Amino acid sequence: MKLDLLGLPKLEPQFLEPMLAQPAHRPIPYPGWMYEPKIDGMRIIAVKFDNQQIILFSRRKLSENKKFPAILKALSSSKESTWVIDGEIAALDPQGKPSFSLLQTARENSLTIFYLFDLLSLRKRDLRGLPLRTRKELLRQFFYPLPSPIRLLPHFTEEPEKVFDKIKELNFEGVIAKRTDSLYESGKRSSSWLKFKFLKRQEFIIIGWTEPKGSLRPFGALLLGYYQDHILCYAGRVGTGFSEKIALELYTLLTNHEIVSPPLSQLSSLQLPQSLSIHWTEPVIVCEVAFREWTEKGKTRQPVFIGLRTDKYPTDVVRE
């Protein structure tokens, strides 16, 4: 496509707050929307500066360069002078399904992929005021093909029910629906982007842990929390899904942040057996948990630990 980049606002290459999707259920919007697989990975804002340096920024504006040298090498093959790209880094299991828990341990291997899905800036021009469909076309025009492990994230515009069934068969965790004419709203959770999850899954803040009972693991279960109206609420405990390595690393992290008093304002909501020995921790560690459903009392049912989320701020963790 032809576009007069010089007619767009100037924008120096820099980290830009990512646009976020709102949690949604049925009905699925159509037409005028496109649909992408929801990737189980780490959100990345990739920036190429004037000096040709490339930085992979997490949502917390931390560099992830040391973890993904192959991705950096592949991005360096781009001939464009400067750019800002939005995407997701994922580790694929043997069936080709993105796995966040695998990303925690694998980091740099042949199955670690950087999926590109939005172009925010090019040649020091701000593209965020352009419709999504135009930004997608520019992304393909200027960044396809790039060598592995870089891929463009596929999107679909067919009838949503068929798209959802197809994406579900491919074992992705959900779908992101985006208005084709949506502008890029940095730092906002916009209704122009909606996320639909096939399983209930979200981030929680770790607020404590219990002593193990007859287990070689250094802890029994993690106590979970989330913010509601700026109040930290108890969401239940998770005691499964930990590898031995992750459990040991997590225990070290927990003890480094151990505190004497519980971070919750209302202890009555805990409803924990008196036989449990509880340790409290500062509400600064974020993890991701999959679970079957919410109970009537606001607790998770059948939760399974997925992994730590160092790319998420604790204050952003709310019930979805």
Main features:
about 15% helix, alpha+beta, Dna Ligase, domain 1, six-stranded mixed β-sheet, EC 6.5.1.1, DNA_ligase_ATP-dep_C, D-amino Acid Aminotransferase, Chain A, domain 1, globular, ATP binding
CATH fold topology of the largest domain: OB fold (Dihydrolipoamide Acetyltransferase, E2P)
Q: What is the helical fraction, as a range of percent? A: 10-25%
CATH secondary-structure class of the largest domain: Mainly Beta
Largest sheet: 6 strands, mixed
Count the beta strands: 18
Number of domains: 3
- Our Rg estimate from Cα atoms comes to 21 Å
Poorly predicted segments: none
What class do helices, strands and sheet pairing give? alpha+beta
User: Would you identify the CATH architecture of the largest domain?
Assistant: Beta Barrel
| Strand composition percent | 25-35%
- Overall geometry comes to globular
Quick structural summary:
This protein is an alpha+beta fold and 320 residues long. The chain is built from five helices and 18 strands. It has three domains: 65 residues, Dna Ligase, domain 1 (2-Layer Sandwich); 112 residues, DNA ligase/mRNA capping enzyme (D-amino Acid Aminotransferase, Chain A, domain 1, 2-Layer Sandwich), CATH 3.30.470; 117 residues, OB fold (Dihydrolipoamide Acetyltransferase, E2P) (Beta Barrel), CATH 2.40.50.
What does this structure look like?
The chain is of the alpha+beta class and 320 residues long. It has 3 domains: 65 residues, Dna Ligase, domain 1, CATH 3.30.1490; 112 residues, D-amino Acid Aminotransferase, Chain A, domain 1 (2-Layer Sandwich); 117 residues, Nucleic acid-binding proteins (OB fold (Dihydrolipoamide Acetyltransferase, E2P)). Helices cover 15% and strands 35% of the residues. It has 5 helices and 18 strands. The longest helix is centred in the C-terminal third of the chain and has 13 residues. This is DNA ligase (ATP). It catalyses: ATP + (deoxyribonucleotide)n-3'-hydroxyl + 5'-phospho-(deoxyribonucleotide)m = (deoxyribonucleotide)n+m + AMP + diphosphate. GO terms for molecular function: ATP binding; DNA ligase (ATP) activity.
